[in-house]
Amino acid sequence: MLSHYLFGIILLATCFTGHSDDAWKLELDKEGIKVYTRYASGSAFKEFKAEIIIDGSLSGIADIIADVERYPEWSYKTTLVKIFRKEGNIIQYFYVSDTPRFMKTRVAFFESEKTIDPKTDEITFTLVNIQGNQPISNGEILIPTMKGYWKLTPLGNNKVRVIMQMLTEPGGIIPAWLANMVVVDSPFVTLKGLREQFNKKSNLVK
C-alpha cells in the first residue's frame, strides 16, 4: 500500500514538473502556416507558437491586429470584443469566446500593448489578463489564464513574418487533455484568417 501511495505522489509530481523543459514540437505545417506546441512550465496545458509569412506591408498587418473589435471577423472562436479603455499604445478590452451551449461562456478582460523596436522596426503586441471593470453573468466564466504575444518582423521584399504565441487555460470543467487536443486549431485558423483579412483589406484599397 505504501509503495502505491509513493508511486502516486511521484506520478503526480511528474505531471506538473516533467514538461517544464520541453522543446517546441512541430504539430502542423499546412498552407504556409507552422504550428508548434509544448507544455508550459507549471501547467498541464500546452502553449502554442505559430508562424506565417505574409506578402504585404508591416503597418497594414499591424493595423489589423490592433483593430481588436474586428477580431470576430477572423480570429478563432471570437464572438465579441469591446474596448473599454484606450491610452496610447495600450488597449484594454472585454473578450467573449464562442463556447458550446452546454458549457458556460468563456469571457476575459485583456490588456494589449504595442511596442516597436527602433533598430529593427519589429512590432510586438503583448497580451495579458487583467482585472475587469464590469460584472459578468451567471452564464459566463472568466478565463483564468490567457497570455502571449504577436510579433511582426519585416523580412524585406514586402514580406512580413508573423509569430503568434499563446498559453490558454480555459478554466471550469474543461480538462487539460481535451484543451490540448484542439490547441493546434486556434492558431491555424487565426493566422489563416489574418492573412485573408489583410488580403481583403488590400483589395478594397486598390
Plain-language structure description:
25% of the residues lie in helices and 42% in strands. It has 206 residues and is of the alpha+beta class. Helix 2 (58-66) crosses helix 4. The radius of gyration is 19 Å and the shape is globular. The model is unreliable at 1-21 (pLDDT under 50).
Count the E strands. 10
Our estimate of the beta-strand percent is 35-45%
Largest sheet: 10 strands, mixed
Please state the CA-atom Rg, rounded to the nearest Å.
19 Å
What level of helicity do the residues show? 25-40%
What general outline do the C-alpha atoms trace?
A: globular
Low-confidence stretches: 1-21
Which structural class should the secondary elements be placed in?
alpha+beta
Topology as a string of helices (H) and strands (E): HEEEHEEEEEEEHH
The residue-averaged pLDDT reads 87
Distance between the termini: 74 Å
Q: Key features?
A:
206 residues; alpha+beta; 4 helices; 10 strands; 25% helix; disordered N terminus
TL;DR of this structure?
The chain is an alpha+beta fold and 206 residues long.
What is the fold's blueprint, element by element?
Elements (H helix, E strand, L loop, with lengths): L1 H16 L7 E6 L2 E7 L6 E10 L2 H9 L11 E10 L2 E8 L7 E12 L6 E7 L10 E3 L2 E12 L2 E11 L6 H6 L3 H21 L1
